[in-house]
Design a protein that fits this description.
Thiol Ester Dehydrase, Chain A, Rossmann fold, 2 domains, ten-stranded antiparallel sheet, six-stranded parallel sheet, 23% strand
Amino acid sequence: MNDIIIAGKRKFSLKDQVTFADYSGDFNPIHVDPIAARKTLIGHCVVHGINGLLWALECVMKHSKINIKSVRVKFSQPIPLDTLVICSWKPNERTIHLVSERRSTYYSISYDLLEGYEKADGYVLPLLDIKENPTVINFSELSTDKKYLNKFGGNFKNGDQNYCELRSALTNEVVYEICLLSNIVGMQVPGLHSLFLECEIFLFDEKICSNPYYQIINKDERFGIINLEYVGCQLRSKMTTIERPHYQPKSIDAISKKVPKSIDLRNRKILVIGGSRGIGAEFTKVASILGADLCITYFSGYTEANNVVTEIHSYCKSVVKILQLDVTSLSDIDKITFEYDTLVYFATPKILPTNNGFDRNLFETFYTFYCKSFEAIAKRFSDQGGLTVYWPSTIFLDGNNAKFQEYIAAKSIGEKICERLSLTTDLTVFFPRLAKVSTDQTLSLMRENNLDAVDVAIDIARLLSCKFDK
């Protein structure tokens, strides 16, 4: 039997995520907090890897009451929420794939069967606590010689609502113990900045451990890879995880120590489009230290914007206002009152590479942010007496990176718009080509030596200061 069976289809919702998080105790923000997830490498909420695995096994169990001895899963790419996922099963090969509508692979799963397996009684796990916040690990302090008792879990009773066929085959306790692997990775090690790469699970019909524990088998600090082993009541598991790169903004106290006193932005009024995060937030802090009064815009990250303002007001007396703005909405743009002499434009979507040719939809997104919306805002700014505009370009234009064609094309058009604005308005427009800067919008799995966002912000302040001094 070589035929492929479509065993199931579904879309995972945020509600599904919260339900699984309550069951497993894995409340990592990348799974349940859309605002926090924006600042991760992936840029949006994704399905818990173990939840996706259990759903795939549930789909298969509905077609055939197989006796699983072991299962291996490779998490090739995360599953976005509200995206159709297809469970594709090859019984003869004992493989399952979770794929997108375009047949791009999310998970690759294989399993072994145990002939004559009889379901054993479930063994009660030790009482587990709810861990409120994911751990932020210190990689260098992780020990490969220590065994960590697994003290944390979720609400076991919520499992009654999930995986009916799987629970019937494996028992409630075994399914719950599989869910705890998500807790170990997402809440404990690597914790907050975790990414699940691979998992292998071996099931037993007898109790093998009374006090479940996990240990770090190996770690590679160069790539952030951590190999874990879990020994539970009725299963063992080997897990490959990674501490994904993450961006940690500097405090305003730390920034103030780097800002040269020779730069003066006093009596300047600056509007920062996209000032709640990334370079925009760091520039806002630098400019406020240098005496400027500012207004920063945000779209959905009010908390992030308010945190920037609160931090600044704890340090200095510069005026910093907050304005909600959807830069893709021309009606929102038409409502802006420009009482500023300087416009700094940092609005950007998540910058993503592509591998399968030019993505027209992605280009349109970049074009809207970097070209169409920017030009509309700059023209209104000019009409209302604005003087100076800063729009960051990219050194990607000096090369030919095939994975960022859409980004490069949009930035190239944006440079031409800057040139046109300089010729047709009274604006002075700066659009230097920046090297890659470390922010939450430029994260990648490869550890890179990118420019420091604060250093870039200081350079921008210096450039604007020179203009003002003329």
